[in-house]
TrEMBL record, chain A:
Organism: Streptomyces coryli
Gene3D superfamilies for the chain: Periplasmic binding protein-like II
Signal peptide: 1-26
Pfam families: SBP_bac_1
Key words of the record: Signal
UniProt xrefs under PANTHER family: ARABINOSE-BINDING PROTEIN-RELATED, DIACETYLCHITOBIOSE BINDING PROTEIN DASA
Protein name: Extracellular solute-binding protein
Taxonomic classification: Bacteria, Bacillati, Actinomycetota, Actinomycetes, Kitasatosporales
Protein's UniProt keywords contain Chaperone: no
PROSITE patterns: PROKAR_LIPOPROTEIN
Record carries keyword DNA damage: no
Coiled coil segments of this chain: none
Automatic annotation (TrEMBL), chain B:
Organism from which the protein derives: Streptomyces coryli
GO biological process assignments: transmembrane transport
Record field: compositional bias (Basic and acidic residues): 1-11
Comp. bias regions, Low complexity: 12-21
Cell compartments where the protein resides: Cell membrane
Protein name: Carbohydrate ABC transporter permease
Length: 453, 309, 319
């Protein structure tokens, strides 16, 4: 073993040493290059160019700006965003989940848009209230909507026919009936879950169930958490039980994780699920992949039978330290204007036509744009199920509500989500979990509110 | 800590030192397999079984990377429908080649830097007797125990302060200053070298550098190689630092890139596991192949190292 | 006796005053050799440790203004249920993983003995997973361990066991992660293999003469002889397990979507530390978290060293 290693290794080591010098120069060059880049071009974060719509809209923004736009695709990443702001090297504009905006605004990571709106003559009233409210903290606006996701009930019409049921069996205002339907539709093969009767989509959609039960997660001013109020606890008891009667969360999620959500063998087509509340974008996906499925989309009802629609979405915001705040403002205006949306929607309709799927409309958070798209671009495709679904989606646009903006942002979200998860994993009862979450949430809210700025 | 020091008695027999074989007791390793044919067969069967278990995840990945989405979880090793299109799709969607290149450069830089610097420092601690040596070496050992994650935050702040917190530099430049674990390891090797070699060279008027470069390094090549390989493995597989320091996708390393692929195509994204599998194959396979080709040197070196512990 | 090595005390080493020592040429040379480490230690270890200690008493977040908050961060460590939970998760994972890893690695290493040249091949096979990026291991975990369609449960199904939902059912997540982590135990195998080969053969022969069976030989010869290697891997693997990050982060906390569906069951201490530091930018609180981890690791390591005095055998010890 003490024998000197063969020549080959020596050569390899020398080669490696030679390579070792490369990065020295490469890295130094890279660093200075990055520095130049960020001041000369306009960078975006969190905006993807995945489909015709987003591409066409970006083209409009490019026309409005006389600076090169560099699009950093890929979803918004909290960790990357905050460290870029801390390092004083942020993107010029960022597209982020509105639920997070309050938290970032509270710690000073975002610039208020009020002056920008004034300067560019942006009519803030044209946007839908929940989208504006969710991005407004202490009276200041921090984001303008880039998307507006609505939630409706999506029911598997084919399965209803098989089982002799009607859409009313999935009426979310009658919780007992909904539970009976769930029990009826759930199916197992040899101990293994093969069909989900009804997926309440918690933890994600928990705010909608709370609202349906007449409760709220937080006061309207966004300062006091109300996570352990009786209405919230009851909503969690009910929804977690819906999963329990189908074999428990572990099984439901495992089956859910194996779904081909974006393909032709999606759970609706394969009748792997009875019904679930879902965001509007999945209607679009289903329309492209299984236009023959009898999809029944109906509004989500609260327990008094009124339509409710929990809306979320992404908004454009300008980070503190943006090198081009003025251009960012122009960019945001260009991206969210009714005209741009129309052009984008046309491009998407053309794409849908090419893929031989029906165009199912777009939902923008800009009420004027929505109207334009609904009346001028979208046309009934003749596919009755999807045409109806689109109608439903437009009908619920005005019934939207959002979780009030708050200074704790994603930490507040995480508090109630974790509580739901603790119940689902059988660790705690709903009351215990929400008591704990309430304590945590109030503590992060207090720190965020009195702390900085 | 004291215990580790006591190991010195043993380490005097370190392979680099190669004390005359005749003086050593015959070890199990030198015994020629008197295990009966039956015993040997049983061992082989068990080993082959275990090897299949160890190789299976790789095979599964490769096979999944050639499947269409619906068949990924059919768990058949031979794809029912052969779909090489996954590779071109991922090649178009992500700068895979850039990531592979970044990783290669950073990994080599990290390994070369740490091998050279740790070797120097280790020799300093092994050859010389100087005031402060014991205190400083105790610090080296102390650092070895210090979990890296503890320093994650302040190190980030230092790079941030130097305006380098979004570059590739933090991924390898600290290695220029040696690493406690390797210093410790290499010092143990140097300690095993016969003193007379160095004394003779000194008499001939060799400089300290010559002692290191011409005598110590050639004799300790296996140990240096182990350092090199360990660091290649560590740098190639690291996710934490790329996650903290790399924001521009053009600068990503392969693990960071794979995470970006997972974000987009995995859970919460498009649920297209065949694409994730394809990316996993691309980031895993080159290293596996290189390692397989050079395995003799690699495992021999590490095996030698095993005597340390 | 073997020839004197660098490790042996130098006969007639010069002794003198400190001042004289620093004037000596070899002292200066020595400091030149260790200079890189000294610089690195100051910049990347000592400096950061001091900084981290100071930060832990502030609410520093890199964006807003910074104030001293006294002991508030340390107080919060005890009020924050996620700290206790993630610490328990991490300790449980470590307690499950380290002994299993050592036992299986030892079994594999013993199998490798006496198979002749094939040992090299198998050793490589066992080592390959170590070269696999941990992110890919996390990905594999999600794919192979899926409770519904994963191959693990399919295999269990063949022998009549309905496997649990490894990736989604809270209590099963940690055992699942332990199992996938065992895949990369190659380094430990290689170390044990080398240690086993170094055991003097005559000890076995002597034991056999004393009438020791296979178990007796294993218990009284093998284990004491490789106790050094066992101890080394115990310490290193424990410290490593306590800092587990990538697999759990990749599988459960990588994206907001994944996070929203995961309770604290997969929350490892370093994952939580990372979230606090880089996702929420609570650098002050994260520093306090880091110091708690440091204390825990030091305590565990000291205990291990204490115990090792009783169990680790060194050549030259009186038996």
């Amino acid at each position: 073993m003490a024998a000197p290693p063969p020549k080959r290794i020596r050569r390899r080591l020398a080669l490696a040493a030679a390579f070792g010098l490369l990065p020295l120069t490469a890295a130094c060059g890279g660093v200075s290059l990055a520095g130049d880049d960020s001041s000369k071009s306009f960078t975006t974060m969190g905006y993807g160019l995945g489909d015709a719509l987003s591409g066409a809209r970006m083209d409009q923004a490019r026309k409005a700006l006389d600076i090169k736009i560099r699009v950093n695709e890929g979803s918004f990443d909290e960790q990357q965003f905050l460290s870029s702001v801390a390092a004083d090297d942020p993107p010029d504009v960022v597209n982020m989940d509105r639920a997070k905006i309050g938290g970032y605004a509270a710690r000073g990571a975002l610039l208020p848009l009020d002056a920008c709106a004034k300067k560019e003559h942006i009519n803030v009233d044209a946007y839908r209230d929940p989208a504006i409210d969710e991005a407004t903290l202490n009276g200041k606006l921090y984001g303008l909507p880039n998307s507006y996701d609505s939630r409706v009930m999506l029911i598997n019409g084919d399965l209803l026919k098989d089982e002799g049921l009607t859409p009313e069996d999935f009426d979310t205002s009658d919780w007992d009936r909904l539970e009976r339907t769930t029990k009826k539709l759930v199916k197992s093969d040899g101990g293994k879950l093969s069909r989900i009767g009804f997926n309440p989509k918690i933890p994600e959609f928990f705010p909608m169930w709370v609202k349906a039960n007449g409760g709220a997660l937080i006061t309207d001013d966004g300062r006091t958490a109300t996570l352990n109020s009786p209405k919230v606890v009851e909503a969690l008891e009910y929804t977690s039980n819906l999963l329990k009667i189908q074999g428990g969360w572990g099984k439901v999620k495992a089956l859910n994780d194996s779904f081909d959500m974006f393909g032709t063998k999606n759970p609706m087509a394969r009748k792997q699920i009875g019904a679930l509340p879902f965001e509007n974008w999945w209607v679009n996906v289903l329309a492209q992949n299984s236009p023959k499925t009898d999809l029944v989309a109906v509004p989500f009802k609260d327990r008094k039978g009124r339509t409710i629609n929990w809306t979320t979405g992404y908004s454009f915001a300008i980070p503190k330290g943006s090198k081009h705040p003025d251009e960012a403002c122009t960019f945001i205006k260009a991206m969210s204007s009714a005209k741009t949306w129309q052009i984008g929607a046309k491009a998407k309709r053309a794409e849908a036509k090419k893929n031989k799927g029906p165009y199912v409309g777009d939902f923008t958070g800009n009420a004027a744009a929505d109207r334009d798209i609904e009346t001028k671009i979208w046309k009934p495709s003749g596919n009755e199920a999807y045409d109806k679904a689109t109608r439903t989606l437009y009908d619920v646009q005005d019934k939207g509500f959002a979780v009030p903006a708050n200074a704790a942002g994603s930490e507040f979200t995480s508090a109630w989500q974790k509580a739901v998860n603790r119940v689902l994993s059988g660790e705690q009862t709903p009351k215990e979990a929400l008591d704990q979450a309430q304590k945590q949430a109030q503590s992060v809210l207090d720190i965020a509110n009195q702390g900085k700025r | 800590m004291t215990v580790l020091d006591e190991r010195r008695t043993n380490d005097a027999e370190a392979p680099g030192a190669a004390p005359p074989a005749a003086k050593r007791r015959r070890t199990v390793g030198e015994r020629r397999g008197p295990a009966g044919p039956l015993g040997r067969a049983i061992r082989m069967i068990l080993l082959i079984g275990c090897s299949i278990a160890f190789l299976y995840p790789f095979l599964w990945l490769v096979s999944a990377s050639f499947k269409p989405a619906q068949q990924v979880f059919d768990n058949a090793l031979i794809p029912e429908t052969f779909k090489p299109g996954n590779y071109s799709e991922i090649w178009d969607a992500f700068p895979m080649l850039t990531w592979l290149w970044n990783s290669t450069v950073i990994t080599l830089a990290a390994a070369v830097a740490v091998t050279i610097s740790s070797g120097l420092v280790a020799f300093g601690f092994a050859y010389f007797r100087f005031p402060g040596r014991n205190v400083l070496f105790a610090l080296v050992i102390g650092t070895m125990m210090l979990p890296g994650t503890v320093l994650m935050v302040p190190q980030y702040l230092i790079w941030d302060w130097m305006h380098l917190s979004s570059s590739q530099l933090p991924l390898w430049a600290p290695n220029l200053f040696g690493s406690a674990f390797y210093i410790f390891l290499l010092r143990q090797f140097f300690l095993g070298l016969p003193r007379e070699l160095f004394e003779a060279a000194r008499v001939d008027g060799a400089s300290y550098w010559t002692l290191y470069w011409r005598i110590a390094v050639p004799l300790c090549k296996p140990a240096l190689l182990v350092t090199f390989i360990f660091e290649i493995q560590a740098a190639w597989t690291d996710l934490v630092r790329p996650l903290i320091y790399l924001r521009d996708p053009e600068l990503y390393t392969v693990p960071r890139g794979l995470k970006a692929v997972l974000d987009q195509f995995g859970e919460g994204g498009e649920w297209r596991w065949e694409i994730v599998a394809t990316a996993s194959v691309i980031v895993t396979l080159p290293m596996i192949l290189i390692f397989f080709l050079c395995q003799r040197h690699f495992t021999e070196g590490i095996a030698t190292q095993g005597r340390k512990g | 006796m073997t020839a004197p090595t660098l490790g042996d005390p130098r006969p007639g080493a010069r002794r003198g005053g400190l001042r004289a020592a620093f004037k000596r040429r070899d002292t200066r040379a020595a400091y030149l050799f260790i200079l890189p480490w000294m610089i690195g230690f100051l910049i990347f270890t000592a400096g950061p440790m001091i900084a981290s200690f100071v930060l832990s008493f502030t609410n520093y977040d890199g964006i807003g203004s910074t104030q001293g908050v006294g002991l508030a961060n340390y107080k919060q460590l005890f009020d924050d249920p996620s700290v206790a939970k993630s610490m328990m998760n991490t300790l449980l994972f470590t307690v499950l993983r380290v002994p299993l890893q050592m036992a299986i690695a030892l079994a594999l290493a013993m199998l490798l003995l006496r198979v002749g040249r094939a040992a090299g091949f198998f050793r490589t096979v066992f080592y390959l997973p170590v070269m696999t990026p941990h992110v890919a291991v996390g990905v594999l975990f999600l794919m192979l361990f899926n409770g519904n369609v994963g191959v693990i449960n399919k295999a269990l199904g063949y022998i009549g066991i309905t496997g649990p939902s490894w990736t989604t059912d809270g209590p099963w997540i940690k055992p699942g992660l332990v199992l996938i982590s065992l895949w990369s135990l190659g380094t430990t195998v290689v170390i044990y293999f080398a240690a086993l080969r170094n055991v003097p053969q005559d000890l076995y022969e002597a034991a056999e003469l004393d009438g020791a069976g296979p178990w007796g030989r294993f218990r009284h010869v093998t284990l004491p002889q490789i106790s050094g290697a066992l101890f080394f891997t115990l310490v290193v693997n424990t410290i490593g397990s306590l800092q587990t990050f990538t697999e759990a982060y990749t599988a459960f906390y990588g994206t907001g979507q994944a996070q929203s569906y995961t309770s604290d069951d997969a929350l490892f201490y370093v994952v939580y530390l990372f979230q606090q530091a880089f996702q929420f930018m609570h650098m002050g609180y994260a520093s306090a978290l880091a110091w708690l981890l440091f204390v825990v690791i030091v305590v565990i390591t000291v205990i291990q060293f204490r115990l090792s005095k009783r169990f680790v055998y060194y050549e030259g010890d009186a038996r």
